[in-house]
Amino acid sequence: MNLKNFLVAGALLAGALFYSGCVTNTQTAGSPVQRLVFTGVSSEKKFALKEFNPDLPSDWSGYKYLVIEMRTSTPQRFSICMKFAWIPPGEFTMGTPGNNTYEKPHRVKLTKGFHMGIHPVTQAQWQAVMGNNPSRFKGDDLPVEMVSWTECVAFCEKLGKGDGKQYRLPTEAEWEYACRAGSQSTYYFGDDPKLLGDYAWFNGNANGNTHPVGQKKANAWGLFDMHGNVCQWCEDWYDANYYSNSPTDHPVNTTAATGRVLRGGSWGFSAGDARSAYRYDLTPDFRVSSIGFRVVVLSAP
Asked: Within 10 A of 299 (CB to CB), how many other CB atoms are there?
């Protein structure tokens, strides 16, 4: 395989060594999709590069980062690199104590791990897949915004046609579980809102606009921009009372309602509205410059 623009970068996060990389291939239209995976060897602080082939193991749960390079074989092909962090299965208390019933604490169990985009989808990624850029604030590394829930679902469906996998928005439970990364505090870094500026772009430091993704500190599972920059669409329909009757295992509200769930803070939100448990909703066709999304991939290559 002829490769160019090879880049490998390592970062030490929460005591674990993470490696990420992007590869641009030079294959012509009609060639098979190519995938590369980088794996970290934390004990020796080395990296191993494995070209994807059928002999690689089927269990990908030990890989900290999954890097997927896709090229369609149609004349309208696109090439895109997205980075995903492995989110392990587990249990957690979803919600937060208080008087608002729509955040009522309850136990949730996710028996299957998944890969989640390490940051919101960028404008360059959206442009590569959808062929347009609806964002108010322009910049390749800025999160795409002014995108409706319906349009984000269309992005995931089109992305999947590039390599045959299933991409979707995270469920509300998956989003909060991934955001908390094992924490039960107000934010994934603790309870002090004075520290939020180190981890998120919000109305106290964003100056009224979005910022390039991945600039603030990540959580323990390597996810950036969970508490700020742009709010993020989730798969669920919104129900203020859903927490009172939702199932323990893999909850997702599929009952049609007025709005779809949104999670995470944004450049226009206060520190109080950037909490891990904060939830609200908007109609699926709503667009605003403070809303974007990130994706989940259901199966590794």
From this structure: 11
- Which own/partner pairs from 157-160 qualify as long-range (CB within 8 Å, at least 24 positions apart)? 158/129, 158/130, 159/70, 159/80, 159/129, 159/295
- For 199-209, how does the pLDDT look when each residue is reduced to its tens digit (9 = 90+)? 999 999 999 99
Answer yes or no: are the C-beta atoms of 81 and 68 closer than 8 Å: yes
Could you tell me which of 94, 292, 85 has the C-alpha nearest to residue 201? 292
What total of structural domains would you count in the chain?
Answer: 1
3-state secondary structure 217-236: CCCCCCCCCCCCCCEEEEEE
Domain boundaries, position 227: 3-297
Residue 22 has pLDDT above 50, yes or no: no
Identity of the residue numbered 158? K
What's the pTM value of the predicted model, to 2 decimals? Answer: 0.79
Single-letter amino acid, residue 121: V
Residue 56 pLDDT greater than 60, yes or no: no
Tokens 């603790």 sit at which residue? 190
Distance CA 297, CA 61 (A): 13
At 192, which CATH number? 3.90.1580.10
